[in-house]
């Protein structure tokens, strides 16, 4: 497995919709897995506008050596004041399984450590790869939220 350099996390603004859209287009396996249509540029623009109005939502484009390698969307003080929840970590399909996802989670945990007691990850649909990934990062299954949401959690306080 390649060793990845530290990543840059840059907040996403609606102006970056085209870049986020391109990233989604580069992840057809994930889109097929969650059973949705490929989002249009308009869909992404609307989503980023929604995000802008929710001060607890934190969305970042992930860069390695100046290149976009992924997207991260999480929410602070959710589902309770002492927790945060990742709703999507998306790594460019061509760059998956090289340790980048793991690096993002490590950096996010460092960022939140001391401010947040627990980090949750909500896996949507029948996404066994994602479940295995979060378990590999030390997250344990917390509960299922209906038939299509699986919540995983890790305690960040030492
Ligand atoms: N089964 C078991 N272990 C796995 C699997 C798997 N299918 N995939 C990765 N791992 C392990 C790796 O072996 C590695 O372990 P190691 O460091 O001990 O060798 C570790 O997990 C880290 O793997 P990475 O290479 O960092 O994983 P990657 O960069 O591919 O990121 C991710 C994982 C985010 C799931 C990526 O594949 C992706 O973007 N998938 C499509 C979108 C998606 O499903 N995102 C998650 C949705 S759920 C959510 O975000 C809350």
TrEMBL record:
The keyword Acyltransferase does not apply. The keyword Transferase applies. Pfam families: Acetyltransf_1 (PF00583). Keywords: Transferase. It comes from the Bacteria. Signal peptide: none annotated. InterPro entries: Acyl_CoA_acyltransferase (IPR016181), GNAT_dom (IPR000182). Residues 7-157 form the N-acetyltransferase domain. One of its GO terms (molecular function) is acyltransferase activity, transferring groups other than amino-acyl groups. PROSITE patterns: GNAT. This is Ribosomal-protein-alanine acetyltransferase.
């Amino acid at each position: 497995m390649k060793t990845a350099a530290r990543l840059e996390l840059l907040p996403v603004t609606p102006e970056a919709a085209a870049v986020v859209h391109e990233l989604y287009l580069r992840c057809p396996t994930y889109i097929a897995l969650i059973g949705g249509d490929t989002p249009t540029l308009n869909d992404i623009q609307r989503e980023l506008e929604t995000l802008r109005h929710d001060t607890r939502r934190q969305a970042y484009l992930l860069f390695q050596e100046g290149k976009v390698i992924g997207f991260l969307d999480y929410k602070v003080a959710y589902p309770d004041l002492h927790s945060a929840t990742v709703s999507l970590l998306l790594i460019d399909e061509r760059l998956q399984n090289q340790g980048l996802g793991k690096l993002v989670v490590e950096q996010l945990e460092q960022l939140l450590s001391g401010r947040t007691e627990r980090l949750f990850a909500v896996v949507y649909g029948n996404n066994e790869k994602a479940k295995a990934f979060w378990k590999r990062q030390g997250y344990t299954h917390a509960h299922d939220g209906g038939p299509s949401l699986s919540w995983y959690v890790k305690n960040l306080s030492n």
